[in-house]
Design a protein that fits this description.
- With 438 residues, this protein is α/β, with parallel strands linked by helices.
- Among the domains are: 2-198, NAD(P)-binding Rossmann-like Domain (Rossmann fold), CATH 3.40.50; 208-289, N-(1-d-carboxylethyl)-l-norvaline Dehydrogenase, domain 2 (Orthogonal Bundle).
- 44% of the residues lie in helices and 14% in strands.
- The chain has 17 helices and 14 strands.
- The chain has helices at 10-22, 33-40, 51-60, 70-74, 98-110, 127-138, 158-163, 175-185, 200-231, 235-243, 264-277, 283-306, 335-344, 357-363, 373-377, 397-403, 418-423; strands at 2-6, 25-29, 64-67, 79-82, 115-119, 144-148, 168-172, 195-198, 315-319, 348-352, 368-369, 382-385, 408-411, 428-431.
- An eight-stranded mixed β-sheet has the order 3-2-1-4-5-6-7-8, with helices on both faces. The chain has a six-stranded parallel β-sheet with strand order 11-10-9-12-13-14.
- Helix 1 links the parallel strand 1 (2-6) and strand 2 (25-29).
- Helix 11 packs antiparallel against helix 12.
- The longest helix is centred in the middle third of the chain and has 32 residues, at 200-231.
- 47% of the residues are buried.
- It binds nicotinamide-adenine-dinucleotide (NAD).
- Nicotinamide-adenine-dinucleotide binds next to helix 1 and helix 5.
- Nicotinamide-adenine-dinucleotide binds at residues 6-12, 29-32, 35, 83-86, 99, 102-103, 121-122, 151, 153, 155, 262-263.
- It comes from Cognatishimia coralii.
- Residues 317-418 form the UDP-glucose/GDP-mannose dehydrogenase C-terminal domain.
- GO terms for molecular function: oxidoreductase activity.
């Protein structure tokens, strides 16, 4: 089957590469000439484990190509996926559908008859119907169907998630679109996973409901962490004890500096907006959004305490700026709240991140980038662990202490323990949801 993927970002590129690996002929189209140039040279413009090798394999096999030319790409195609960004619209929290609707307009003019237009982007309820109307209005004679196929992959484990999904969700209006979608995913069927075939609205909402639920779980344990610190409990023990209950599960119960990333912040805001527009306020989600902002602020307050009330002229090392390990994505990362506040208050900030520098250089002016965690600790009065990259999980803590001018560690991912910190002779070890060692 010939498939066109509009948008070669994290989702479009991974989906396109994986579909080509299933054996389909895939053409990825993007508006960004630099991205297409780099992809045409065979270079992956983002950091995603395993993507380079899988992409090269499928380019060589002649099943995968990249272009700026949507018209040429659509020739003979049976399905076109829209995988463009849906960022938060300024001001009101609504998902910005500009890119989706632009792509739909282009498809309307250029697609062949019989095409199935699949929305992979995360979009508010009603968008697939809007896409259908827009295409119909722009090209009355085109024969086409629409389908919703939200994506659940996680950056950093995107290929594994795409190839071994917990479920594939497909929203359709008729059997023809369902058949095409089943055919696209058929090569995966050997691995046995549920395909949830449903209506367009349910498919659209499944995505938001899933992300809002996960954001709620993370925020719940972050709030519990604050209580643990006050009452002398250990949030890791609390999370473990909770997570062993099969009804709760142990995933997304790791306390930290607040959720970030390309999806949770914007999708929770969009769901809250959908609720308001339909006069069904999403009160839990609205609270989660507020509490998460508070979590990031709480981290800053704790750092201020560790710096005796002033960041001015303090040297602070930061380990990790991406919103999680194994990605270069910094969208809405907690680092974007915490580091500018430190720099703005007069601290000298040294930052180390295995993949975050390229993106971070634009987003974090005024910091010094170093390529090694021990350099980040050099002459520092405070070292903050913000992202739990493997590179930061087995540090030689004694060596870190020797490098620092005042050995204070803020471990906001609970990678280490007070016992280890004490043994290494840190003067203070602060973590999340556990009593500080002073
Ligand atoms: P992204 O910003 O990385 O990529 C979007 C790409 O679309 C960009 O390369 C942009 O140049 C391109 N584009 C925009 N308009 C275009 C057009 N008309 N024609 C061709 N290309 C165009 O975004 P992303 O992270 O891949 O997210 C895409 C969608 O998938 C979003 O709705 C997001 O919510 C959803 N999603 C993302 C993730 C994730 O982990 N990133 C996971 C699940 C779902």
């Amino acid at each position: 089957m010939k498939i066109v993927m509009i948008g070669a970002g994290y989702v479009g590129l991974v989906s396109g590469v994986c579909f080509s690996d299933f054996g389909h002929e895939v053409v990825c189209v993007d508006k960004d000439p630099a991205k297409i140039e780099s992809l045409t040279r065979g270079e992956v413009p983002i950091y995603e484990p395993g993507l380079q090798a899988l992409m090269s394999k499928n380019i060589e096999a002649g099943r995968l190509s990249f272009t700026l030319d949507l018209k040429g790409a659509l020739e003979g195609a049976e399905a076109v996926f829209i995988a463009v960004g849906t960022p938060t619209r300024r001001g009101d929290g609504h998902a910005d559908l500009t890119y989706v609707m632009e792509a739909a307009q282009e498809v309307a003019q250029l697609a062949p008859d019989g095409i199935v237009v699949v929305t992979k982007s995360t979009v508010p309820v009603g968008t697939n119907r809007q896409v259908k109307q827009a295409i119909r209005k722009a090209n009355k004679s085109l024969e086409f169907e629409v389908a919703s196929n939200p994506e659940f992959l996680r950056e950093g484990a995107a290929i594994k998630d795409f190839m071994n999904p917990d479920r594939v969700v497909v929203g359709v209006q008729n059997t023809r679109a369902e058949e095409v979608m089943r055919e696209i995913y058929r090569p995966l069927y050997l691995r046995e996973f549920p395909v949830v075939v449903t209506d367009l609205e349910s498919a659209e909402l499944i995505k938001y409901a899933s992300n809002a639920f996960l954001a709620t779980k993370v925020t719940f344990i972050n709030e519990m962490a604050a209580l643990c610190e006050k009452v002398g409990a250990d949030v890791k023990e609390v999370a473990r004890g909770m997570g062993l209950d099969g009804r709760i599960g142990n995933k997304f119960l790791h306390a930290g500096p607040g959720y970030g990333g390309s999806c949770f912040p914007k999708d929770t805001k969009a769901l809250a907006r959908i609720g308001q527009e339909n006069a069904v306020p999403m009160q839990i989600t609205e609270t989660v959004i507020k509490v998460n902002e508070g979590v990031k602020q709480r981290m800053l307050d704790r750092l201020l305490d560790l710096c005796d009330g002033s960041f001015k002229d303090k040297t602070i090392g930061v380990l990790g700026v991406t919103f999680k390990p194994e990605t270069d994505d910094m969208r809405d990362a907690p680092a974007l709240t915490i580091i500018p506040a430190l720099v703005g208050a007069g601290a000298k900030v040294k930052v180390c991140d295995p993949e975050g520098q390229r993106e971070g250089e634009n987003l974090l002016p005024g910091v010094t980038w170093v390529d090694d965690p021990y350099k980040a600790a050099g002459s520092a009065q405070l070292l903050v662990l913000l992202t739990e990259w493997n590179e930061f999980r087995a540090l030689n803590l004694k060596k870190i202490v020797r490098k620092m001018s005042d050995p204070v560690l803020a471990d906001f991912r609970n990678v280490y323990s007070a016992k280890e910190a004490k043994k290494a002779k840190f003067s203070v070890y602060a973590s999340v949801g556990r009593v500080d060692m002073v």
